[in-house]
Fold:
Amino acid sequence: MPFVGTFAPPGDKSVSHRLVLMSLLAEGEMLIKGLSDCEDVASSLGAFRALGGKAWLEGEGLKIKGLGGRWPHFESLEIDCRNSGTTMRLLAGILAGAPGHYVLDGDDQLRRRPMERVAKPLRLMGARVDCPGGRPPMAIDGGSLNGVEYSPADASAQVKGAILLAGLSAAGPTSVTEILPTRAHTENLINHFHGLVVVEGSRLTVSPGTLRLPAVFETPGDPSSAAYFLTAAAMLPGGRVTAKNVLLAPARTGFLKVLDRMGASVVTTMTSDSPEPVGDVTVTYAGPLKGTEVAADEIPSLIDEVPILALASALAQGLTVYRKVNELRVKETDRLMSVRHQLGALGARAWIEGDDLFVQGPTAFIIPDQLDSGRDHRLAMTLAIALLAAQAKAPILGAESIAVSYPNFEERLNLLWRD
Ligand code: S3P
Structure:
């Protein structure tokens, strides 16, 4: 009973957020084709509209009119980022350079996530940012910014993105030096929108300036959503799944390298390269998977795929180690603990030593009365795949959270599963 078939994943969530939020700073009109329809991106669209932005359905996509950095002066505006950390952090960078008082808040999960990592560099640039205890709500008094040189302590594309976006409104150039490469969508889109980010090794320098939207943008498919079905194909005999039109930027496709090392067949075909590589991916089952070591410097390129890879590791022969996955502790849940607990609930041997996650396979899954995603979308999708792998049924608590990133997940699951 394998996963077999071809599908197109939804538009990439990270790119979709940036298309919408960067339109706040850009001139012109853009038809976005294939924008992600997930709840998180709806939060970014909500923020865009709250600031006076206009977006409407037109033809095959969503037409968006850039605000060019000009929106009404708000004495005080509260923006609800709901569950979306990307919305809050990138928006903080954008609002830091805009006069006005803004309060960014979110739901109970977002209110537990660290914001000081964004607040600190924005303060150094001259914005006033208050977030009690380093958590939301974040109050921002935006205004004139100066350029800075900054090296974030964490490998985070959201922190890098917030600083680069603030740098567009600063008085001079701003540089960010990364400890490890993270997804490069902010810098690539700034350049695609006629701004300037120069990349020299791990150091990126943004020049102040306005952006201009292209007339049309085709959103590539989301590799993080495709990962559930591609990994499922690798795990189960007879599996063969093709994901069409997927973003294949190296900082996003670490999971494909890991699946290849574990013994699956992974074939990619590039179809376009601008502004980032896009193509088709086929993953085929090629015998039982085997354990591997995933190094700390690979983690940013597969950070959102650790739950589904950990499930594959539980079925694989031998030990898999994920080094330095501490960033998982500050996702929608403490995802490191949730992965360990839920794999444990399925009868797998998974444990944490320091910041490393260990999974010892192979496992014959046992199915408990219920599984609990903790309302973490990535865990809920992983558990849905686990149940099919075990050919069992059990309720997954909090499965409604899947809409945060992949509203059509269940429909795809039913289409690709052959029983
Ligand atoms: C994202 C960056 C990552 C990732 C998140 C989306 C982005 O978070 O986990 O799902 O779009 O920039 P961090 O920047 O916190 O690592």
